Amino acid sequence: MEEEPPTQTRRSPPQPSIEEPEPKKLKMSSTTTTSDDEDVNSNSAAPKKQRYKRRKIAIFFAYCGVGYQGMQKNPGAKTIEADLEEALYLAGAVPEQDRGLSKRYDWARSARTDKGVSAVGQVVSGRFYIDPPGFVDRLNSNLSPQIRIFGYKRVTASFNAKKFCDRRRYVYLIPVFALDPNCHRDRESVKASLGSGNELVKCLECSERGRKVEGLMGKRNFEVKTAISESDISPNSGNAIEVPDVQANGALEDNATASDSIKETSVLVENSGTELNVGGEATAKIEGSEMSGLGNDSENVASKESVNRNEKSSGSFKYGEEEKARFNRILKKYVGTHNFHNFTTRTKAEDPAARRFIISFDAATTVVVEGIEFVKCEVVGQSFMLHQIRKMMGLAVAIMRNCAPESLIEKALQQDVNINVPTAPEVGLYLDECLFTSYNQKWKDSHEEVSMKAYEEVAEDFKMKHIYSHIGSTEHKEGAVALWLHSLNHRNYPDLRVADEAADDNAKNTSVGIDTQAET
């Protein structure tokens, strides 16, 4: 037998070595503020730099609107939004390449407040870098004290602070004296009272601003220069206004001397039932000999002014049940879906945007700020247009002061009617809260509630310290509402009597029809 040759074993080519993939890193939780790169071997040359992710959040904050041209960013103007965006960049929430480009981080605001209007519960949303911890503190450190960040909430990726906001609640603080028809009357009423036994005392504020009534106290020049502090003002019904240099009649006198000073003068503010006890320096200069029987003693002049109005002072205006019922009845006329083209600017009557839905409007409570009693008017609506709330308040106050009939509101809400209505000062208005009812109901099981509940205490402190104090002090120092009240007349707003004229025409037509039938 032949021997079989030994079989040769074939050698397989060398197989390339397969590297095992690195284990996948776990996702960071929404509350984690550090990355897994911290667990680096000590043998590594250098640890990797921490990397953070952008998070979609809703930021809750408040601000006092004084000195700002509104909320929305406007080139060349000082706005709340511009300061907030810059603070977000400085806090590291926005990268350098996105600075000033809000669309890149999905910026949205819940409400757009006007110039000088404040907010307690404003909300904005966007995608920001909120890590490392201390995001809120970093923001506040880069903002002025009149802007305060309360906190933030994680929201869904599709959340938009403007589109997801169901309702907005605004509050307007109107002084009680503004609802008194006899307080701070218009110039025509003051002129008409001359020579009668029911003369109105000329308002000090109007004299200061140049709205003078000629010959109110006779042919004379009576000047009162005062240096008043808030402690010197003791209001009887909350109607007290700090007035620096004021005239009672005539032009300012630069040559008043210390010999003309009076230690204390008591002056009533135009039939309002409120007495201003003015301490400090008061200078009076009287010129001419015809004083309408008042004599040459300035103290006698002030005394006569005070005595003549003592009876009116005792019956000062109060926001009682009758006044409250009437004011709320007026405000309720705005509730519902209406065409508010007469209560804004730049929006035509046929524009669908003019139709707005007001959910509620009431004035049930009063608050005392800086010694002045204010009525707290709360209005809730889906959304509001430029100046809409201020014009709604302006017309309501005009009706309370008997400058216009209640039926004028229904007429102003008609699409085919154009009426010029008064605009109340901006200082008393602030955004109270933005509500997200539908969103919270839909995402209640997976996300935090988007509301101000967690920040109620700090928000109340900010409101009292910055917003309410500003409203009260502004009325004391500048008399913003008191001066505005003098503009509520038919000369400035002839449309305020349009309803009366229509009623008169209807009455005349009815009367003519009856006479014609009688003759027939």
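Second entry:
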Amino acid sequence: MVACSPPENHIKCSSTNTNCTITNSYGTFPDRSLCQAANVAYPTTEEELISIVAGATEAERKVKVATRYSHSIPKLVCPDGQNGLLISTNYLNRTLEIDVQSMKMSVESGVTLRQLINEAAKADLALPYSPYWWGLTVGGLLSTGAHGSTLWGKGSAIHDYVVALTIISPGGPEDGYAKVRSLDESNSTEFNAAKVSLGVLGVISKVTLQLQPLFKRSISYVVKKDTDLGDQVASFGRQHEFADITWYPSQGKAVYRIDDRISSNTSGNGLYDYIPFRSTPSLGLAVVRATEDAQESLKDPDGKCASAKLITSTLKNLAYGLTNNGIVFTGYPIIGYHNRLQASGTCLDSLEDAMITACPWDSRIKGEYFFQATFSISLSVVKSFIQDVQKLVKLDPRALCGLEQYNGILMRYVKASSAYLGKEDDALDFDITFYRNKDPAKPRLYEDILEEIEQLAVFKYGGLPHWGKNRNLVFNGALKKYKNAGAFLRVKEMYDPLGLFSNEWTDQVLGLKGDVNIIKDGCALEGLCICSQDIHCAPSKGYLCRPGKIYQEARVCAHVSTPEQ
């Protein structure tokens, strides 16, 4: 086992808990701004939490809730201005109750997914579906609509397994300036708003989840050509309960995860310790990043494709981190208990080792630095979207090797949800990770292709954003795509009429004021805007604003070999 340096606290204060800044686990927000707060509070009980909310409300201060690992990419944790208050749920991390009869489990909102899985398993219970990274808190999972992959049951989103929650919002003088609401199906309007809230309704203090009896799974990965991927996706998701697909478009391959529940009598004690989530030597990460930087600056697509093939074949040969018994991989299928397979993230298990090893994206080292575009596209049109991406790849097969350096496009299944800001229909979620330059003014190789894919997804196919990921452009007009957006905003108005838990970013995303686009020179390079003129790209480097190659309505920063006068 590699020991590693644990992620740092993403809230830093110049004196004890005052004059603070906050960032995310990647060390950078999409617009590269620094978020400030006057102070941070670390409540340890619900009573303390209530009095903190009351104090802030009475003083009409902006408030934002922060979590231990701060994994959301957009600016969901920034209180506006410099006088705001951060409330960290770091110490609200207790399991409150497990009722084995009803299979319900109540936890505080700062409990991590990992704790939740482990505590449930001790009682022979399981959360059936979850994200694959376990360094997320229950409050954060709900607020961003985080999910795993399935079309079965109620779907893969954690919020659809919540049966009750307690939320603390601003109150009037008659409430002592804080209002505590316990919600469940009996007050469904508020409950459906609070299940996915972007943090704008108040602080979630407690959550009760409906679990299932612990079960075993059988997992095999099968690599196929991607020629019929568009035809396969819908049926594959219905055939296998925990199906997902990893797509390598430049290689013309797709890796199908054949993953089902099986009888608990079947022998096997498999473990999933996903390799990209393990502690990684900093030196190795620095070499990989330096290589990638060089490939970008030398405009070397062949080098990127060679790196991508090496990375993807290495992961495949190491079974992505799966082992048959926790130690060694001897072949598929991997059979084991759900709690040992559903999520991982061992780079969080950390001894301080002076940064010799770290999580690959730790901003204190020269490691991964990336964008993530994550959106879900309705199963009814997903085949056409996949075929459009394939048309783009045909124009230059090397164009998407850069994504494959980050193990390709992860495709997970999601179901329509009753949550107002949950998924509108059964869909396939595309998770695309790609290189980000440390210099915001430098364009990327095949900049235009990735921008066209984002715009195809969002505009032509009506893709819904993942609330906890993405660059600004994916949120363009997002709220208009949710049929219950109005109902959500009415609950927000009732819970927090002064907008103390909102910030400039959430107001823009919710269509209340302003626009998610930040228009300035070079804004399209960072996904802060969609270019409408050349100056939004990098004209001095030969990147100009042009229509898309197959989606003419797209506006992308394309490299024009001779800069036009």
